[in-house]
Write a structure and sequence with these properties.
Elements lengths: L8 H5 L10 E2 L5 E2 L1 E5 L2 E8 L7 H4 L1 H7 L4 E9 L6 H17 L4 E8 L3 H17 L11
C-alpha cells in the first residue's frame, strides 16, 4: 500500500479516529487517503488538496458499496481551503454523497467540510453520522480492514 501524503496528516489527526498511515485500495475502484475500522464501521477520509474533481472521490464508493453490501462506511471528505475547486464540482460531491446515503441507508454516511475551520463543530457532526451507522443492526467485523 502507498503511504499517505505527509502534509495531510494534521487534518487526519484532528479527527476522533486512529487512521492507518497507508492508503486503502478499494479493489480497483481507486484508493482512499486514510482509513480505519472502528465499531464495525469502515471510516474513510479523503483530503482534497490538489484534486480538481473531488466528486470522483465520492462516486468511487458506489461500486465498492455495491460489492461489499455487508460493510458500513462513513466517508469524510475534507476540502483544504487552499484548493480552488469549482463550485459545481463541490456541489457534485454533495449530490453524490446524499444520493449514496439514499441508496445505501443502512450502509453509508457522508460528511464534507472545509479545512481549516471549526473542528469541534465538525467532530460533533461527524460523530453523529458515525453513531447513526453504529446503531444500525448490521453484521460486520473490524478484522476485514486490518
Amino acid at each position: 500500500m502507498k503511504k499517505v501524503t505527509q502534509e495531510n496528516i494534521p487534518v487526519a489527526n484532528e479527527l476522533p479516529f486512529d487512521f492507518v498511515d497507508e492508503e486503502l485500495s478499494l479493489d480497483g475502484w481507486g484508493d482512499v487517503d486514510f482509513y480505519c475500522a472502528k465499531d464495525g464501521i469502515l471510516v474513510l477520509l479523503e483530503v482534497e488538496k490538489n484534486q480538481k474533481h473531488p466528486n470522483t472521490n465520492v462516486v468511487k464508493l458506489w461500486p465498492f458499496l455495491e460489492e461489499y453490501r455487508k460493510n458500513k462506511v462513513l466517508l469524510i471528505q475534507v476540502i483544504r481551503n487552499d484548493n480552488k475547486i469549482p463550485k459545481n464540482r463541490l456541489n457534485l460531491c454533495d449530490f453524490i454523497g446524499n444520493k449514496l446515503e439514499q441508496l445505501f441507508p443502512n450502509q453509508f454516511r457522508y460528511y464534507k467540510y472545509f479545512w481549516p475551520s471549526d473542528i469541534e463543530y465538525h467532530k460533533r457532526k461527524i460523530l453523529k453520522k458515525f453513531n447513526d451507522l453504529k446503531e444500525i443492526n448490521f453484521a460486520y467485523s473490524d478484522e476485514t480492514y486490518k
